[in-house]
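Entry 14. Ran structure prediction on the chain below.
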Amino acid sequence: MLKKTMHLAMLAAVGAFAMPTLAHATLITTTTNGFSLNASVTDKLGANKSSSDGATTQTNVNLGTTTLGRFDSSKGVLTGVNVGLASTYKQTASVTAPSTSAGNNMGNANAVGTGSSAVRLTVPTNVTGAAANLSATDNCGAKPKDGCNNGATSATLNHNLSVGSANLNDYVGPGTVNVNHTATTLKAETTANGFNSEATTTSTIDWFGSLTASYSYLEHASQSFDPWGNTVMNLNFGSVYQGDTVADLVFFIHNLAGDRVGLTMTGISESGDSSNRFTTNVANFGTLAAGASYNYGASFLTDMIGSFGAIYEFTFADAAPDGAFATSTLGSGYKLTLNLSGSVVERPADPADVPEPASLMLLGLGAAAMGLRRKRKA
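Output, structure tokens:
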């Protein structure tokens, strides 16, 4: 069928193109938010007790939530998420023994208490890390006091949490993700009280710092007819004589250079060419790497007189990159439009087939002479 034919020279040339490797650099975008959280628990011990009645302990205390912005899929294809913690975690133990009119005010009474805790950071999809444990002891001596806080200790708590490939989609879209801060244990214990009044130990957590979500991604594929991003091309075969052989017109499909995913063709549609005058050798393809191109040809049949046109629309999508990626960030529906046109006109008559004026005169004279000759014979 004529619609399917292509010049053999063009078919042989198709596929001769430069193909860069699929190696590319990963781009990074970040979002950061600070936090300052605290919680406390108390434990009491009656007057003049030399040992503890038992510690007061709380478990899995929700210290608070820090929000981080999600990845904007218009930037590209998400390939990784890392949540970084930079913080200071402080544990304080403070013992108080209110003054009384009775009891030992001679400077040799004592109350002792301890505080301890453990904290944990949990990012969405149950990725847990950044765990730490601290303890502190406060010793309030001499005359009864309204409180002291010399029992404090602190530690730097930094950590990086990597999100697994199966959960990357949870970090895509509008809004925020919630990172939970938990005190897995928070404990206070008054271990001794030499005063004639009740002693109280307060165990306090202070956790402050910042969280940063780092999103690794590759830009979306970028289809074009040239290296500069043109998505519409007009090819005109001009005006040709009926029956002439017309050279194919060559065009290219590019995936623009950059740190981007590959380009895949997913569909071809054609309209406007009801008489099947035009054809191309474009077919759906797999992965066209960033900075690479394919070359193609368009043909024009000239066996019918008239003006003709065709519109080809090529549809593309992001090719899945190697390794982990968020499936929801793969783009599709990218378009290129190719407009073909051309005219076929009737070939003029060959001058050799048209009698010259002198020849016509001789033919006329010959015919007249024949007429006179016949008249004389009559």
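Helices lie at 8-13, 357-377. Will compare against last week's run tomorrow.
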